[in-house]
Amino acid sequence: MTTHAIADAGVLTARSVRHILRSPDTIITTAVTPIALMLLFVYVLGGAISTGGAGAYIDYMLPGILLITVASGVAYTAYRLFLDRQSGIFERFRSMPISRSSALWAHVVTSMLANLVSVAVVVGVALLIGFRSSASFGAWLAVFGVIALFTLALTWIAVVAGLAAKSVDGASAFSYPLIFLPFISSAFVPTDTMPGPVAWFAEHQPVTAIVDSLRSLLAGVAVGAEIWVALAWLLAILVLAAVGAALLVRR
Amino acid sequence: MSATLTRAPALRVRGIAKAFGDTPVLRGVDFDVAAGTVFALLGSNGAGKTTLIRILATLLRADSGRALVLDHDAESDPEAVRRAISLTGQFAAVDDVLTGRENLRLVARLRRLDGPTRVADEMLRRFSLVEAGDRRAGEYSGGMRRRLDIAMSLVGDPPILFLDEPTTGLDPQFRLEVWSLVRSLADAGTTVLLTTQYLDEAEHLADRIAILHEGRIVQEGTLAELRALLPKRPPVLIEPEPTLEDVFLALVAPSAPEDAADQEARS
Q1: Which of A198, B126, B167, B237 has the CA that lies 20 to 30 A from A72?
Q2: Is B89 in contact with A92 (Cβ distance < 8 A)?
Q3: Can you tell me the distance from the alpha carbon of A158 to that of A146, in angstroms, rounded to the nearest whole number?
């Protein structure tokens, strides 16, 4: 039964990966906006931003850019799932003798793969314009793990959006606030320059904890308690979204 | 008719009721479908045909009543039901990004058949889609999409086939193709439950016909039985005139069934 479920999900993942390979623009458009933002912040605004640290500004803001990359990438996950529902093929899969969750898992795995490729592209461009890291191999693994968990949590939010949406626009609208969230965090400027209530929000929303953790890991310095705050946020979002998706599927 | 009576029912539907919110859609539906026969559910739009099909295909739960598919309960043993059935919905459920061949191969893999490529090629031949096999389904005409859709449903030879309005939106030629396909499937032993709003479709295809109206089966029987319900009209003499359908088919008939006709139908 379980091996069947994995085999079914594998067949369906191969299908949606093929979708992406046939329209690789989804990976490119996912990467273009964060790259443009990165260039804007580094070459236009960055000179006037004081982060209070010694490193280059690109080193400071790359974690936030990576989160924006994933937040815009998962919009395609919701979009693909919505199209499957709309075309009736989702219904076809559900009336076939295959594991019921496999159709969702295929989209989740595809989303992970596509977003990690986009993130790799953005990191590549960052390296070209001067990003450097003194992180150890272990720290890089931890960075990978945090970004993968972030992608997984956002992917399940995308699954909820794709299952609940009534229109194509509705399916991807959820990603706009997610893309915006890093701007009201420590991703681009330190929070202590913000007015009181804004600073309070920035310091208590998940992006700041995640960004601070990634930044410390990439800088090769010790990570504080923020990593546990970040992991707690991500696991909570993941569980809530996965439960929401399960309820929507049963409906 | 005697044959339909002696075989055990492939489908047994007993007292199925379903409401969406406060709106009752099905109010207690009962019927049997004998194995290897074609059963038509006739009803106007909104009569509850699709809801009933979705319940039988385990996509929707009934509020009450039972649906048995080859003795498997749709509610308590949906997996066994899904192994026995195949559903062709109202709109062609094909993957537009994949080619016709890839669509068929996908279904063959999911049904865990040996040699999915061979199965796909066989289906392409059977549904005259060989030349279009390597084109994306998104580029197909309506008729070709429907053919691919039905072909995908037949991969793995499921014993029971649900066809929800299989000829809605099709041109007359392909409508006839679907009809002969359904007949040949039934002759080979497949049980077919189809819904339709076309009276002539039920008349041509079905061994038995049930009329679904306002959530209930108001009448069920063979065509002869249904005809007998109304008093016989006195015979009248009518000059036999060709129908518009006869004329249309005579004018357009002999062209190749596949691409040429479909491309034209599309443009």
Answers
A1: A198
A2: yes
A3: 18
The dihedral over CA atoms of B102, B104, B106, B111, expressed in degrees to the nearest 10, equals: -160
CA separation for the pair A229, B119 (Å, rounded)? 53
User: Order of strands, edge to edge, in the sheet holding B9-20?
Assistant: B23-34, B9-20, B64-69, B72-73
Question: Model-level pTM greater than 0.90?
Answer: no
> What local confidence, expressed as pLDDT, does residue B2 receive?
43
The answer to whether B108 touches B120, Cβ cutoff 8 Å, is yes
* A63 contacts A211 by C-beta, under 8 angstroms: yes
Those residues whose C-beta lies under 8 Å from the C-beta of residue A20, and which sit 6 or more positions away, are A26, A27, A110, A114
Contact A76, A26 (CB under 8 A): yes
Number of C-beta neighbours around residue A227 at 10 A: 18
Indicate if the alpha-carbon torsion angle B95, B99, B105, B109 is positive or negative: negative
Is the pLDDT score of B259 beyond 60? Answer: no
Parallel, antiparallel or unpaired: strands B216-221 and B208-213? antiparallel
Measured between CB atoms, does A247 come within 8 Å of chain B? Answer: no
Distance separating alpha carbons of residues B64 and B28, to the nearest angstrom: 8
CB proximity B96 to A under 8 Å: yes
Cα separation, A90 vs A104, whole angstroms:
9
Query: Which amino acid belongs to residue B236?
Result: V
Summarised one tens digit per residue, pLDDT across range A50-92 is 777 667 888 888 999 999 999 999 999 999 999 999 988 998 9
Say if the Cβ atoms of A96 and B82 lie within 8 Å.
Answer: yes
Per DSSP, the residues of A32-96 read HHHHHHHHHIIIIIGGG---SSSS-HHHHHHHHHHHHHHHHHHHHHHHHHHHHHHHTHHHHHHTS
* pLDDT tens figures, B76-101: 999 999 999 999 888 889 999 999 99
Confidence of residue B143 (pLDDT cuts 50, 70, 90): confident
Give the separation between CA B20 and CA B35, rounded to whole angstroms. Answer: 31
N-to-C CA span, chain A: 23
| B3 has pLDDT over 50 | no
Q: Considering only residues 61 to 120 of chain A, which have any Cβ-Cβ distance to chain B shorter than 8 Å?
A: 87-89, 91-98
pLDDT tens digit sequence for A98-121? 988 899 999 999 999 999 999 999
- Name chain A contacts of B169, Cβ cutoff 8 Å: none
CB B165 within 8 A of CB B195: yes
Instruction: Decide if pLDDT at A243 tops 80.
Output: yes
A235 touches chain B (CB under 8 A): no
Between helices A137-164 and A57-87, what is the axis angle to 10°?
Answer: 30
Q: Which of B103, B110, B145 to mutate to test the interface with A (most CBs of A within 10 A)?
A: B110
